[in-house]
Structures are given as structure tokens and as C-alpha cells.
Specification:
It is a single chain. The protein is an alpha/beta fold and about 260 residues long. The protein folds into 2 domains: about 10-190 and about 230-250, Rossmann fold; about 190-225. It has helices at about 20-30, 40-60, 75-80, 105-135, 155-170, 195-205, 210-220, 230-240, and strands spanning about 10-15, 35-40, 65, 90, 135-140, 180-190, 250-255. It has a 7-stranded parallel sheet with strand order 3-2-1-4-5-6-7, sandwiched between helices. Helix 1 packs parallel to helix 2 (about 40-60), helix 1 crosses helix 8 and helix 6 (about 195-205) crosses helix 7 (about 210-220). The protein is globular. The two termini are about 30 Å apart.
Length: about 260
């Protein structure tokens, strides 16, 4: 299927590895030019090199990278100095630490809200008017399945990401919708990334069980019997950015192998 994205420009955050990199790969495979962003320059440069060698050469897509902390004002200014206008923005920031809510002070909460709620809002604010003027725009926020089914050790994430979800529910249905700009959230369940490794380790520490036991137990609770892959995640992201998804906005797309058992 041709997703109609050839030649578009995308900003993909947190794209040096994991789900962000999976999204960048899928978009480049569709001929989308990408500017990938993450904090670690060495890993990001390697990701860009791999994207060029393995994907961009066959599609003619351009791959740029900018090593910055997108959660800071200075980081965002540096990114938009490389390129200002984007047709697609994939917001993504590392999740806040696991732990017990009793141990988190105000600074911990502010940091979580800043990274996982306010930063995506700032990126949306900086790009949607240009998208609307051109008549095409796609915002995809990588949030978490925890906004539908909260995870006890991820209280910071539960709160901050739910705040973003509420904001998107309103702005996605504003005048932007009639101008060809869609805003959707993509909610990952358990994917085989560094993030799952961290949460598994935290669960193991809390329960006294081994990492191997926790991984096996988690995968057994997923109807598909396994963790997802970043490549699978990226393909769904690419579809949300496609012309075929033009009538879809303000949605929370849960990608979790069937783990969430609710009807809605």
C-alpha cells in the first residue's frame, strides 16, 4: 500500500533506539525525509547512518539528526534551527522513573509533566499552524497503555501521559481538523526495548523474582504470547501518518498484543 507520504518531512523524537527508531525506519521506508532527535549523539549518529544505509538509499529519503534534549527550551530551539516546518511530528520522550508515589517530591512530578505532557504540547504548538496552512499535518504522540490501564510502579507516567491525552482530546477536534491536521496518540503495551528492561528489573527488585521469571510471566499474560517489536510499532505509526488515515483524529490507538481486556 502506498501511504502517500513520499517527500514529506517528519520530526521524530527519541529516535536513537526503541520505538522512536522503529517509527523513523517505517517513515523512511515510505520515502519520508526525517530529522531524528535524541540526547545521545553517538547512538543517534549511528541510528542515522543505519537509516541511510538500510532504508533511505532505496527510497531517496533524506536523514538528518540533531542531538538535543527535546524537553528543554534550548533543545527545541536547536532542533527548529535545523528545520522549522514539518508535515509529520512524532513526539516521544523517555518515561519517568518507576517507584512508589510516596517517594516522589514536587520536582519529580514537574520533571515528568514537563517531559511527557508539556514538551509534546510545545511541539504541537510550534508545528500545527504551518501544517494547517499547507493543508496536511500528522501529529503522533507516543504515550503508553498505562493511560487506559495504569501500572502501579509507573505513577509519574500514568499522571503525566493522562494529562497529555486530555489535552489532545480537545485540540484534535479544534479547527485544525478541517484543515487536514490530525492528532492521535499511539499507546504501546509491552515492547522489547530498553524501557521494558528497566520496568522488568524494577518489578524483579520489588518481587524478589528473577528478570527471566518476570519476562516469562509478562509474556504469558499477553494473548499473543510475546512482547511487540519496534518495527511493528513503527508500521502502525506510519499508517497514522498516511493519507489513508486522514479521517482519523483524536484517537488513542492501543498496541499491546491484546493485553488490555476492557471492551472500551
Amino acid at each position: 500500500m502506498d501511504l502517500g507520504l513520499q517527500g514529506k518531512w517528519a520530526l521524530v523524537c527519541g529516535a536513537s533506539k526503541g520505538l522512536g527508531l522503529g517509527c523513523a525506519q517505517a517513515l523512511v521506508q515510505e520515502g519520508v525525509n526525517v530529522l531524528i532527535v535524541a540526547r545521545g549523539e553517538a547512538l543517534l549518529a549511528q541510528a542515522a547512518s543505519n537509516l541511510i544505509a538500510n532504508h533511505a538509499q532505496s527510497t531517496g529519503a533524506s536523514v538528518l539528526f540533531c542531538a538535543q534534549d527535546i524537553t528543554t527550551v534550548a533543545g527545541r530551539e536547536a532542533v527548529f534551527a535545523v528545520r522549522k516546518d514539518f508535515d509529520i511530528v512524532v513526539t516521544n520522550a523517555g518515561g519517568p522513573p518507576t517507584g512508589d508515589f510516596r517517594d516522589w517530591d514536587r520536582d519529580a512530578w514537574i520533571k515528568a509533566v514537563d517531559a511527557n505532557m508539556l514538551t509534546p504540547i510545545e511541539l504541537i504548538k510550534a508545528t500545527v499552524d504551518g501544517m494547517a496552512a499547507r493543508g496536511f499535518g500528522r501529529i503522533v504522540n507516543i504515550t503508553s497503555s498505562s493511560v487506559k490501564s495504569p501500572i502501579d510502579i509507573l505513577g509519574l507516567s500514568n499522571g503525566a501521559r493522562s494529562g497529555l491525552t486530555g489535552f489532545v482530546a480537545g485540540v484534535a477536534r479544534s479547527s485544525l481538523a478541517a484543515k487536514g491536521v490530525t492528532i492521535n496518540n499511539l499507546l504501546p503495551g509491552k515492547f522489547d526495548t530498553d524501557r521494558i528492561a528497566a520496568t522488568v528489573q524494577a518489578t524483579a527488585n520489588k518481587s524478589g523474582k528473577s528478570v527471566e521469571e518476570i519476562r516469562a510471566s509478562q509474556q504469558a499474560q499477553i494473548p499473543m504470547g510475546r512482547y511487540g517489536t519496534p518495527q511493528e510499532f513503527g508500521q502502525v505509526c506510519a499508517f497514522l501518518c498516511s493519507q489513508q488515515a486522514a479521517y482519523m483524529t483524536g484517537q488513542n490507538v492501543l498496541l499491546d498484543g491484546g493485553a488490555y481486556s476492557g471492551t472500551f
